[in-house]
Amino acid sequence: MERRIKPETLMMEPDGQYILDVRRVADRHASTEQLAGARWKDPEKLDKWADGLPRDREIVLYCVRGRALSNTVVDALQARGYRARFIEGGIEGWKAAGGRVVGK
Question: 4-103 maps to which CATH number?
């Protein structure tokens, strides 16, 4: 499975993905925005929450810029058998591509 998804591609796909915000605590607190319907999980505590994610849906996750943190979380989730991808460029790439965000 692909590890990443372009923001523009995600915008054109039908809904149904489980959107996961994995920004670090400080980054999340510094922002007033998130993707609509996103659920935040602390990436530092991945071992505590990973097995509770839905297995019947694709997981699309994002951090701030879609780099090391997103890659690490995708690796961990794919190793557990989840269908997981991250948004290229993170929430910043999503917004730059015209993606909608909402207040959290």
Answer: 3.40.250.10
Residues 6+ apart with CB under 8 A from 48: none
Which residue in 97, 71, 93 sits closest to 84, CA to CA? 71
Residue 91 one-letter amino acid = I
Q: What pLDDT, in 10s, does the model give residues 16-33?
A: 999 999 999 999 999 999
Residues 4, 84 contacting (CB under 8 angstroms)? no
Q: CA angle 68-74-76, nearest 5°?
A: 105
Distance CA 88, CA 104 (A): 21
End-to-end CA distance of the chain: 30
pLDDT tens track for 60-104: 999 999 999 999 999 999 999 999 999 999 999 999 999 999 998
